[in-house]
Amino acid sequence: MRKMFSVIYYEYKMQMKRLATWGILLAATILSFLDNLPTARNLNRLEFLNEPAYFIYRVISLDSLVLLFGLMFLLAERFPLDSKTGMKSLFMTLAMQKWQYMLGKLLGGLLYTFSVLCIFLALCTTIYFAAAPFAISLPECIIPFVKAIFVSVLPVSLFVSFCSIALPGIMDIRLFYILAAVFWGANAAYVDSADANPFYLITSGDLVHLIWIHPEWSYLDKGSVLANGIFLMGSGLLFIGLLFLKPQFWRSE
Amino acid sequence: MIRRIKSEIKIIGINFFIVAVFFTIAVIAFAIIAGELLDFYSVSFEVIFPFFVTIIAGEWGKTRADGNFDIIASQSKSVFHWVLCRYVIIFGLSCIFAILSMTGASAVRYELPLWELLIIYFPPAFFLSSLCALFGIICRQEHIATLICGIVWLITLIARSLLRLPGIEYLYLFIRYTGDPNHIWLWNKGIITLAGLFLWGILYGLCRRPNLS
Predict the structure, then answer these.
(1) CA distance linking residue A213 with residue A31, whole number of Å
(2) What DSSP character marks residue B169?
(3) What is the full DSSP assignment across A76-104?
(4) Residue A96 has pLDDT above 80, yes or no
(5) How far is A29 from chain B (nearest CA, A)?
(6) What stretches in chain B show pLDDT beneath 50?
(7) Is A219 left (phi over 0), alpha (psi -120 to 50) or beta?
(8) pLDDT digit string (tens) for B50-87?
(9) Does residue A253 register a pLDDT over 80?
(10) Is the CB of residue B47 less than 8 Å away from at least one CB of chain A?
(11) Is residue A125 part of a domain?
């Protein structure tokens, strides 16, 4: 277990120290402010921007998709990079088992994705609270923020980190980039409607409607919420399973 | 030149051709199964295929992230010539697969003539892949150029609402995808192509710097 925790710690530390992580966070935050900052123009354009829950819902469903797309690129190279630099061979010479190495990488990536998403959401919410030209109480911001962490940030971090780390361990990283780009593009192109959203949406599935829902379309399909949650959490676990089953990933025990 | 092309194809490797064939077949299969409500050609050849070409340029057409870059930069007469050659070969090969996809898709679902598909496809593919080539010569780390271009692509896709601002429709990368309400798509494509050429001007300036390696 100690070895696994070491891998988690160093994986997290390496990722958080990367300049690219902070560059992506900055780009996503600027995009979020351009779209959602409660200026007079944005308040005119977005009917519900004076509600903190709507602001958090919008940041999660639109702007975090860009952040996650960037993080996906940084997470995808973890296993291929270790193979390329010889670190994996070095780990295999140690008394480290396959599950310790794999789980260390996956959980380190999950912790990293979760942290960056939380920092992003906290930053956007704090600036919204400070810049709003109308009165907002602290509970009005904190309650949807905490809801967003549990209903969206956690399952989405699980999905993105596990898929992005596990799949390049099974296939060529470049093929993974192409498939992921098509998937993210389909997510970006989808337009919300009164009907239940498809279950495969990462940040704009019906799970995110637990944070805020349009007053005119207030019916929430519980089946769709469940399907979205199962897809996000289940796919990540499925790809980990495929990775564990991959022969010749590790030395023969 | 033929020797150069053969050498670059050897460096690219078989994986590129496997992935490209798989992608071409997937696009043709999509053409068969996609419904009539989907604007198939704009989605496939203005949005998705150009980004596929960008990934190809960033991942298979590595320059500064190439392990031999320092030797090439110090020994070759012109780094720009090497970068351009590599880019042209990669982009050319990708365009061959794009044309095959267009031909295959038109055979099952004819909506637009081939020349119009090529004009829809070429400018965003050229601009995004040139941007990737530019960041490829700036960034030493692998995948960073593709990452930056990916974020630009995704933000452009999400930010369709910016079209309400005056003048943006002349610069928006995926104008036919948005429906081109003011019928300015040819102007749009010309401007984007010029922007791509401008990126190559910047790349030329960067390659001439003495401390590049």
Answers:
(1) 23
(2) G
(3) HTHHHHHHHHTHHHHHHHTT--HHHHHHH
(4) yes
(5) 12
(6) none
(7) beta
(8) 999 999 999 998 898 888 888 888 888 888 999 999 99
(9) no
(10) yes
(11) yes
CA dihedral B69→B75→B81→B86, nearest 10 degrees, is -40
Q: Find the CB nearest B155 among A31, A74, A178.
A: A31
Per-residue confidence (pLDDT) for residue B5, from 0 to 100: 85
Residue B213: what pLDDT? 58
Rounded to whole angstroms, how far apart are CA atoms B48 and B124? Answer: 10
d(CA B6, CA A249): 33
pLDDT band, residue A158 (cuts 50/70/90): very high
Output the pTM of the full model: 0.89
Residue linked to tokens 């399909």: A221
- How many beta carbons lie within 10 A of that of residue A223, not counting itself? 11
Domain count along chain A: 1
Lowest mean pLDDT among A173-182, A185-194, B37-46: A185-194
Interval A210-246: pLDDT, tens: 998 888 877 788 888 999 999 999 998 999 998 888 8
| Token pair recorded at residue B93 | 């090969």
Task: Find the length of chain A.
Answer: 253
In a domain, A251, yes or no: no
Pinpoint the alpha helices (H) of A137-172: 138-148, 154-170
Cα of A144 to nearest chain B Cα, Å: 24
pLDDT digits (tens, 9 = 90+) for A46-77: 888 889 999 999 999 999 999 999 999 999 99
Interface test with B, best of A73, A192, A193 (most B CBs within 10 A): A73
**Quick check: B158 contacting A, CB < 8 Å?**
yes
Tokens (6 digits) for A47: 């009917």
Among chain B residues, CA nearest to A25: B151
Q: Answer yes or no: is A148 within a domain.
A: yes
HSE value, Cβ hemisphere, 13 Å, CA-based, for B69? 21
First to last CA, chain B: 25
- Is it the case that residue A80 has pLDDT exceeding 70? yes
Q: Which residues contact A202 (CB under 8 A, 6 or more apart)?
A: A65, A68, A156, A159, A160, A184, A187, A232
Q: Which chain A residues have a beta carbon less than 8 Å from that of B60? A: 174
The reply to whether residue B154 touches residue A185, judged by beta carbons under 8 angstroms, is yes
Q: What's the rounded Cα separation, in Å, for the pair A22 and A174? A: 23
According to the 3-state scheme, what is the secondary structure of B21-51? Answer: HHHHHHHHHHHHHCCCCCCHHHHHHHHHHHH
Site from B141, B154, B174 to mutate, A interface, most A CB atoms within 10 angstroms: B154
**Structural domain range at position A83:** 2-245
In a domain, A94, yes or no: yes
Please report residues of B whose CB lies closer than 8 A to that of A27.
151
